[in-house]
# Entry
Amino acid sequence: MRKLLNKIILILLLSIVTFRIIGVFDNIAFDNRDVARIKVSEQFKNLDYLILGNSHSYAGVDIALFDSVGLKAYNLACPAAGPYTIKLVLENYLKTTNTPPKNIILNLGPEMFSPSSDVFEKYPIHRYLNPAISNEKLLFNGMVGAGEYGKLFVKSAKQGAQKLLVTNKKITESLIQYNFLLKGFAVRPTVYTESLYKKDFSKYKVFSGYDYDTKKENVFLSLLDYCHSLNIKVYLHPIPNNKLGAFLSPQLAQGYATLLNKLMVDKNVAVLIYPDYFPEYWFADIDHMNNSGATIYTRFLLQKIIH
# Structure
């Protein structure tokens, strides 16, 4: 019986080691525009403005308008980014370019302090940084729990096996070219409708059950201190997000409001708040701007930071 148990344990260990080795190859190719945005950013150095944040930023801040006034900028926002993701991406950018931007424009929202941010299982951007960050490091640094680590382990093994068998360089090259031309901005031509609201309602309903994550708040404040230590000026902007506020739990809404009030009296950061109503037809869905909205909003940001 004992020999059988030892054999089972040995087989399990060998399987785990094999899957772990295969998982290392999960990043040898990519077919994702969010990964391309990170890869392309390494070619943009000595920036006047680096845009960070989540999908609200890469859909809402159009770099073409920065170009039009002679400012060098790149949109390095990532999907579902919270304080952990933003920290990893910023550190990677600074390491690979060795040129800190003069300014950072970072969107701020309640979703960033909830379980819907820093979802590494769905968006494993850490595996595409340079050098790549292991799933184990995320676990040891407290960025994921044991359950999420297990899912990441399995996902890396599956993707590693797939990419060892099949790669499509044409897709990777086209995504790189797309992000190079738009400098990270994501085009969204659609216009919000009630049918889109009904379609996505269940996806956003989860926010009504979320608490405010104070641990993520502490990481966020430490991130601001890190930027200040590098003499990088930080602009925070609570970007308009259409209907998202209607889904927030009282705890999440209150925690975010308290943080925002704290930041607005902080002399080390500038908080830019859009002063007017942002109509529905400037949004593509429940919480992301479309191209028209991004143009209007980016003009607002530029007016504030230039003047």
